[in-house]
Amino acid sequence: MRLEDRTSLSKFSCDHVDLDDFLHNEAKEYTNHLLGVTYLFRSDKTNDIVGFFTVSNASLNLKPVARAKKKKIDNSIPHVKRRSSYPSVLMGRLGVSKDFKGKKVGKQILDFVKGWFRFNTDVK
Fold first, then answer.
1. CA 42 to CA 113: how far, in whole Å?
2. Model confidence pTM above 0.90
């Protein structure tokens, strides 16, 4: 679920001062200023927030990449579409609720994001 201005975050804590501060005090402004969008993972059973992640637009610059690696990347892309940089997604923040630590929620979030941006062309 996308974080919205009316979303209550009062019960969420991941016991990490910087991540909690970001989610409670900065994430909504981040979205409003188009710096990144924060999404919440919720429990199917309780609807509690179990984790969150923030993504933003970025690019993969191949100029500083070693020639052999650049060639490997370029070989997978048709010649007419090759560039010195490619659009990408940056995952800026990821937090898991203290109540769900040790339950592989972080791995589930990462797997979701990888699949979402790799296979879904209708990202909202």
1. 15
2. no
